[in-house]
Write a structure and sequence with these properties.
93 residues, single chain, mainly alpha, 43% helix
Length: 93
C-alpha cells in the first residue's frame, strides 16, 4: 500500500478507499485498473449456479467515475490500453 500512499502519480492511477470507508474493505484498499484479473462469463455463471458467489456490498455510486479517472490518470497504463479498458466500460452502460 505504501507505493500509493507515498507516490501521488501511482495514487492517481487507482481508486483508493481508506479502511472502514466502504464496509467490505476492512483494510486500506487500492483498486488498480492496471492489475486486472480476467474472469470469464462462463466462470461467473458456473460459480453462481454452485452458490459460490456472495454480494458483500455495492460499491459507492461514484466508483465508476473514480475508476474512469484512475484509468485516464494512470502512469502505468499505455494510451492504447486506456482506450481499450474505457471502451470495455462503455459497453457495460
Amino acid at each position: 500500500m505504501d507505493i500509493y500512499l507515498n507516490n501521488k502519480d501511482q495514487m492517481s492511477g487507482c481508486v483508493f478507499y481508506q479502511s472502514g470507508k466502504v464496509k467490505c474493505f476492512q483494510n486500506d484498499t487500492a483498486i488498480q485498473p492496471d492489475n486486472q484479473i480476467p474472469i470469464s462469463h462462463d466462470e461467473l455463471k458456473a460459480a453462481q449456479a454452485k452458490a459460490e458467489l456472495e454480494i458483500m456490498q455495492t460499491l459507492p455510486a461514484d466508483f465508476e467515475e473514480k475508476l474512469r479517472k484512475a484509468i485516464r490518470d494512470s502512469v502505468t497504463i499505455s494510451g492504447r490500453e486506456k482506450k481499450r479498458i474505457l471502451k470495455m466500460l462503455d459497453g457495460l452502460e
